[in-house]
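User: C-alpha cells for this one?
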Amino acid sequence: MTSTESQDPRYIDIDRWSTHDAVRALIDGQIAAAKSLPTQADAIANAVEAAALRLKPGGRLVYAGAGTSGRLAVQDGVELGPTFGWPAGRLLTLMAGGVAALSTSAEGAEDDAEAARAAVAANAIGAGDVVIGVAASGRTPYTLAVIEAARSAGALTIAIANNIDTPLLTAAEHAILAATGCEVIAGSTRMQAGTAQKVVLNTLSTAIMLKLGRVYRGLMVDMVISNDKLLARAHGIVQQLTGCNHDTAVEAVAAGGRDIKAAVLIAMGLPPEGAHRLLGEHGGMLRSAIESLPQ
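Assistant:
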C-alpha cells in the first residue's frame, strides 16, 4: 500500500494541466479520501462505545496532534462546546508548539516528545480521560509520546493515522486507519489525509455525544444558546419535541434557564425545579427522563 509521502505518477505534470483539470483532480482526491473510511466503521464504533463509558462519570476528552493534524483535532474539540454543550473544563487540547501553532507553522515542535510527556503529566491525564491522537504519518514523535504516556497513566487512547502498520496505531488501544494513500500533490497531507481525518473526527466525536445523550430524536438538545439565531432554533426544538405552540416554547426556554432539555420537560408540564431534578436523576439523558414520566 502506498504511503501519504509517496508520489502518484498520474499527477507528475499537474502543474502543466488546465486549471479545470487540476481542480477536478483535487476534488476527486477528496472524494476518494472519504470513500476510504467505511472499512473503519467497526473500529470507530468500538472506540465510541469505550469512550462513552469512560466519559460518562465525568472524564475529559483530550485531543493531541501536530501541524495540520493537530489543528484539525483542536477544531473538532472546540466545536463540541457550542454544538453539544460539552463543558470547557472537560476538554483539553495538546498541540505541538502550543496555542501559537494553531495560527503559525511550528513544524519543528512535532519532534519534541519530551514536551508531550511533560504536557500529559502537567495536566494530570489519567484513568478518567479519553485521549485522541491524530497524525497522518502515524509516526509523529509528539503525538506518539502523548498516546504512550496517556495510556501508561491509565487513560483510554484512540489513534487516527493515514499509514498502515505505524507506531501510533500500535500504541493506542483503539486504532483507526484512514488509508488515503499518496496525495495528488506529493506529501501534502492537508489534502486527502486531512479530509479523511476530519471525517473520522466528526464521526467519532458526534457519535460519542450521541451515546452520552446530548442528542434526542436527531436534535441538538444540549446546544448552547449563544445568539438570537440559536435561541430561535431552541424554541423550534421545544415545539418539535413537545407539539406545543411558539409562545409556550418561548416561556419554557426562559423558565428552564435556556436549558433545552429542561425546557422540553417544562413544556410537557413539569415545574422548572422538577425538570432540572428529573434530568439530574437520569444523568442528563432526556429520553430516559421522558420515559420515566407517567403516560
